[in-house]
Amino acid sequence: MRIALFAHPGGRAFGAVEGPAGTDDPEALTIAELEGVPFSGIRYTGERWALADVELLPPILPSKVVGVGRNYAAHASELGNEVPSAPLLFLKPPTSIIGPGAPIRLPIDSKQVEHEAELAIVIGGRGARQVSREDALKSIFGYTCANDVTARDQQRSDVQFTRAKGYDSFCPLGPWIETDFDYADAGVQALVNDVVKQDGRTKDMIFDVPTLVSYVSHVMTLLPGDVILTGTPAGVGPIVAGDAVSVRIEGLGTLTNPVANRA
């Protein structure tokens, strides 16, 4: 099931995206409004819209976004880094989150902002605290596309990642959450102006999805709706004002955002 958060003439709500499997063409899809938040069960209100007639928002508004660095060996190598012996964690603030179509705003004090296409895990209603790897999947509500936008020059100069990855608009998420998804071997791509720049597969993660959920949950309690970014494949590169950057994940959909200078 594809779950989205959307704005309609009467407000905003979660909805189930309905239509042909494998397509994210708004003209071919509808969205059925749900009661409340989907963690507590799926209940329809009876209201439906054409997807093209509503605005998709970030599919979830988490209390925190936990990033995982260097989780693909080729990406670690392209930045001149060693492969970590344990997941390398950092946080992105909730204020960095934007939805499909919202602009990525370039900070005036960075000369090298880059895209990072990533599979994102969304934690379900039970949360996760000190869960085992074997039980980790029970804590997952679904998956979505993410762009871990990074000011690479600041990441290098600061050593730690907070400023480089924490700017407003530096965490696009969407277009929806897919609850039925095979995370083990899915293609992950980044496209800039429709040109493929990153092209990897989740099977090449150093630490897989259950390992990451378990590991993070032993560091911090994961609340319902929290997001874990699972790392990016090789091929990261610059984005500039006027670009359109897309994250495309096989079986999930495509998240596209324009790039603009910060006002």
UniProtKB/TrEMBL annotation:
* GO BP, one annotated term: carboxylic acid metabolic process
Presence of keyword Cell inner membrane:
no
Picking any one GO molecular function of the record gives:
acetylpyruvate hydrolase activity
Which keywords has UniProt assigned to this entry?
Hydrolase, Metal-binding
| Residue stretches making up the Rv2993c-like N-terminal domain | 1-59
Could you identify this protein by its name? Fumarylacetoacetate hydrolase family protein
Question: Where, by residue number, does the polypeptide cross the bilayer?
Answer: none
Show where the Fumarylacetoacetase-like C-terminal domain sits: 64-259
Origin species: Cryptosporangium phraense
One Pfam family this chain carries?
Answer: FAA_hydrolase
- InterPro entries, per this entry? Fumarylacetoacetase-like_C, Fumarylacetoacetase_C_sf, Rv2993c-like_N
